[in-house]
Amino acid sequence: MTLDMIFATICACQDELTERPEEMAVQRESQNGVAVRRSSVVDDVYNGIYERLMSLAIAPGARIPIDLIARDLNVSQTPVREALSRLEREGLVHKAHLIGYSAAPQLSRKQFEDLFNFRLLIEPEGARLATLNMTPAALDHIENIAADMADGGTPVDRTSRYSRFARIDSDFHDEIMRIAGNEIIRATLFNQHVHLHLFRLMFHSRVTQEALQEHEKLLAAFRAGDATAAQTAMREHIQCSRDRLMAAFE
Q1: How many C-beta atoms lie closer than 10 Å to residue 54's C-beta?
Q2: Which of 9, 13, 189, 229 has its CA 20 to 30 A from that of 111?
């Protein structure tokens, strides 16, 4: 056996000894024939960090020490790194060389205004196109997303409720753009992660309740096949959302 092979074996043993309880349990259950995916650990870590980011428990711009998060969630550092990598792709965290991860900075007022001006230019048209392209299956799917947003499983607390709403709201708007059929518009909106950043501006139930009412007007237009009404409903929804969230800058 070469020195390199010996060193690799020692490192592997050390990794096994430093595993956290939940990962060892996953391995034991897998060995016993129970289908347990390690990714579920990453999902739990992801959700935990995501909720902290959305509720501002992790402040915008704050560093996110991997070791502290791992200790707090009682996991090893590996699933924390994987979760942070996912959050980086969503624009909620940034990674800097030699510094590590930090929460994305909060939107400035100029960025906020630019985003809403951009949304007003393209999302009402997207809603109009979605109405023209709407099929019974597509309508059923978007109705299910809306119902999940309003009446889904009971969250653990107010923080998880708000975070969950933000995620589904993003899916709702993305699905409308998908039905609209313009992938350039859809990709541009999605890559900006508009809804996730906007929800970080104001952690308040009013944001969710009023948005639900506005979504219902949009759904009514889709059901009626009224493209003009859908365009108007989307424009009004975006304008109302802008007015609600503007309070964060006052």
Answers
A1: 23
A2: 229
The DSSP code sequence of 31-43 is HTT----THHHHH
Task: Give the residue from 101, 97, 44 showing the smallest Cα distance to 73.
Answer: 44
d(CA 223, CA 142): 11
Q: Which amino acid is at 14?
A: Q
Contacts of 100 (CB under 8 A, 6+ apart): 63, 64, 65, 66
- The pLDDT assigned to 191 comes to 77
pLDDT, tens digit (0-9, with 9 covering 90-100), for 151-207: 755 555 666 777 788 888 889 999 999 999 999 989 888 877 766 677 777 655 566
* Strand ranges (E), the chain: 93-96, 100-103
Q: What token pair was written down for 124?
A: 């009402």
Residue written as tokens 């009682």? 74
Residues 6+ apart with CB under 8 A from 99: 63
Give the C-alpha distances (Å, rounded to integers) separating 189 from 18, 29, 38, 237: 42, 41, 31, 16
Whole-number pLDDT of residue 202: 64
Q: Hey, how many other C-beta atoms are within 10 angstroms of the C-beta on 47?
A: 15
- pLDDT, one tens digit per residue, over 35-73 is 344 568 999 999 999 988 888 889 889 999 999 999 999
Kindly report the pTM of this predicted structure. Answer: 0.73
Q: Residue 59 is which amino acid?
A: A
Return the closest-CA partner of residue 78 out of 143, 146, 22, 161: 22
pLDDT number for residue 157: 62
DSSP, res 106 = P
